[in-house]
Design goal:
The protein is mainly alpha-helical and 256 residues long. Helix content is 64%, strand content 7%. It is globular. Zinc ion binds next to helix 4 and helix 7.
Length: 256
């Protein structure tokens, strides 16, 4: 195939992928998103990654932690803009204060998080943040950007048709996309959405500020993973305060 033909094929494939991109909108913030990863594929990737993590990391038997995580997770998922995910919440035996969410609603909480999240409201702040990442399809959004970038490179270099690039990048994203940190914009959005979700579920949204204060105090010279992949606590506390009146209105109405 000549350069011109290959260029044409690549361009066509990119156009086809772009046409597949739905008009996605994030919940709560209503930010429009560029997502070309089919939801079914993202859910499969999330389930596979979850399976892998579960096979590598011991699951905690701590009854108190498990009960708190199950109850908070279910309560938040019940009031969130749930696309019908098969939610799973697991407590992992891991001393780093961290939590994660995978596409399709697989949520992990480390035992180490309980050193920072000191009550149910604070734990709800973390879990609502993670649930927000999943529902806002932040992983798919990241993968989509990567696919578009690689597709663009393929067109520029006429290296290989974008369709082939697509499956390759998707395979890469299965490992990379899920482990790589979210963008700052996505983190801020998960905070904003999470604050609303926790309020809807009847958890005091002010606990989100306490949580980040705890994280900041915990930091020391080597910040935990959760901090290094997230915006600075001061910055996010400021943003949370800006969304607080709306969240408090929801919380007070629910509890009133
Ligand atoms: Zn996050």
């Amino acid at each position: 195939m000549g350069i011109v033909n290959r260029f044409g094929a690549a361009l066509g494939a990119v156009a086809a992928l772009t046409a597949l991109a739905g008009c996605e909108t994030a919940p709560v913030t209503e930010r429009s998103q560029f997502i070309i990863v089919p939801e079914s594929q993202a859910i499969q990737l999330g389930a596979d990654a979850y399976q892998q993590i579960r096979s590598e990391t011991p699951v905690s038997n701590d009854a108190k932690m498990n009960q708190a995580v199950q109850e908070i997770g279910r309560r938040i998922a019940a009031v969130a803009d749930d696309p019908g995910y098969d939610w799973e919440f697991t407590v992992f035996e891991d001393s780093s204060p961290n939590a994660f969410a995978l596409p399709g609603g697989k949520v992990g909480v480390n035992t180490g998080l309980f050193k920072v999240a000191q009550n149910d409201n604070q734990l709800a702040a973390v879990m609502a943040h993670e649930i927000a990442h999943a529902i806002a399809r932040h992983s798919s959004e990241r993968m989509s950007r990567q696919i578009a970038l690689q597709g663009g490179l393929a067109v520029a270099g006429a290296a290989s048709p974008a369709a082939a690039q697509y499956s390759q990048v998707l395979a890469q994203a299965a490992t990379l996309g899920i482990v790589l940190p979210f963008s700052r914009e996505q983190e801020a959005e998960a905070d904003e959405i999470g604050l609303i979700y926790m309020a809807r579920a009847g958890y005091d949204p002010r606990a989100a500020v306490e949580l980040w204060q705890n994280f900041a105090a915990y930091g020391g010279d080597r910040p935990p993973e959760f901090l290094s992949t997230h915006p600075s606590p001061d910055n996010r506390i400021q943003r949370l305060q800006a969304s607080m009146p709306k969240a408090m209105e929801i919380y007070n109405k629910r509890n009133g």
